[in-house]
Amino acid sequence: xxxxxxxxxxxxxxxxxxxxxxxxxxxxxxxxxxxxxxxxxxxxxxxxxxxxxxxxxxxxxxxxxxxxxxxxxxxxxxxxxxxxxxxxxxxxxxxxxxxxxxxxxxxxxxxxxxxxxxxxxxxxxxxxxxxxxxxxxxxxxxxxxxxxxxxxxxxxxxxxxxxxxxxxxxxxxxxxxxxxxxxxxxxxxxxxxxxxxxxxxxxxxxxxxxxxxxxxxxxxxxxxxxxxxxxxxxxxxxxxxxxxxxxxxxxxxxxxxxxxxxxxxxxxxxxxxxxxxxxxxxxxxxxxxxxxxxxxxxxxxxxxxxxxxxxxxxxxxxxxxxxxxxxxxxxxxxxxxxxxxxxxxxxxxxxxxxxxxxxxxxxxxxxxxxxxxxxxxxxxxxxxxxxxxxxxxxxxxxxxxxxxxxxx
Length: 408
Ligand SMILES: Cc1ncc(COP(=O)(O)O)c(C=O)c1O
Known about the structure:
By secondary structure, the protein is an alpha/beta fold. The chain folds into 2 domains: 18-54 and 315-407, Aspartate Aminotransferase, domain 1, CATH 3.90.1150.10; 72-309, Type I PLP-dependent aspartate aminotransferase-like (Major domain) (Aspartate Aminotransferase, domain 2, 3-Layer(aba) Sandwich), CATH 3.40.640.10. The strands form 4 sheets. A 5-stranded mixed β-sheet has the order 2-8-7-6-5, sandwiched between helices. The protein contains 15 helices and 12 strands. The termini are far apart. Helix 4 (80-91) crosses helix 11, helix 5 packs across helix 6 (135-142) and helix 12 (313-341) packs across helix 15 (400-407). The mean pLDDT is 97. The structure holds pyridoxal-5'-phosphate (PLP). Pyridoxal-5'-phosphate (PLP) binds at residues 42, 107-109, 112, 133, 183, 188, 220, 222, 254, 256, 262, 267.
C-alpha cells in the first residue's frame, strides 16, 4: 500500500557518503584512528580531526539576541540588508550592467532546487556535468524532469567544451528552453575551475543558442570562497555582462561552506539578466516557490552573515584564509605525490575534493573495495573516486597517493 503520489519514486536514497562514513567509523573503533584513512567527509576539518566552526561566525551568532533568533525574517525573499550584502559578497562589483535580484534560500540546495523546479516544465530535460554533485540528478527526478550529461573532460583531461556544446545543441533540437548547470569554480568533486577564456566561450555559445531558445545558466558556486586566488575568484563574472536578452543566469550561493555553517541553513539565489522585467518575473515565481516550500529562512543566520561580511569582514577573511592555506598544502602534497607515482587524477585547481580518474565504473568499484580492505575510505563518483582533502589531515595525506596507486 502506498499513499504517495502516483509519480513518486519509491526507491530509497542510497547515500554513498554516509554508508562509507559508517564503515570508516567502525574500522577506527576496531583498529584505531592511526590505521584508518578516512577521506569521506565533505566538510572542513582541522589538523586535529575536528570539524571547523569559525570563531568569527559562531561567537557572534551566540551573542545574537534570542528574539532576533526567534523572529520570522522580514520577507519571503529574505531580509533587505542580507539580500544586498549577499549580492555584494558574491559579485564583488564585477557585474556592471545587468538587472538583478537576490532571493534568500535554504542553503545552496534551496537555490539550485528553486531554479531547477521553476525554470523547466515537467518532462523537460536538465543538463548537468557527467561528474557532479548527486543532488542535481535527484532534483531532476523529483521534479519529473529528464537529465542529460555533458562530459566534463576530453581525452587531454581538459574541460570538454565540445561535449558541452553538443549536449546543449542536441537538447535544443526538441526543447524550447535550455537549463544547464555549471558548478564552478572549485567543482565538486574534481576541483576544476574554468578559466576566464572558457567562461567567455560559454557565454558566447549561450548567446548563439539564445537566438533560438531562452537559455538559462545555473552557476553553482558552493565552494567559491575557498578559491586559492580569492582576490580574482569573481573575475569570470565579468563575462556575464555580455549576455544577450534571451539569456538568464541564476547563481546558487551557499553559506554552508563559506561560513562553515552547514546546519544553519542559509544561502541565496542571484538572478541576473539584461531585461529588468525578466528578472522581476523570475523573482515573482521564485518568491512564491520559497513561500510554498520553506516560507522564510533563519532570521539570525541572515543577520549574522550581514555583520560578518561588513563590520567583521577582515577578521572573518583572515580566519578563513588559514584554512584555504591548509587546503592548498594538503592538495599540493597529494597532487605532487600522485604525479610522482602515476596515480591518475582529474585536473584539480582548488576546492574541497580531488578525484582519482577511473573511467570504467566496474573497475572503480573493485578499486574502491580494495581501498576499504586496506583501511582507506573514499567516495565513489561517476568515473572516479573522490578524496575529501577538506577533512584529511596533512599526516594522513602524506603517502596516500602512493598507497592508492599500489592498490589500483
Ligand atoms: C556542488 C554543491 N552545490 C550545492 C551544495 C549545497 O549545499 P548547502 O545546501 O548545504 O548549502 C553542495 C553541498 O554539498 C554542493 O556540493
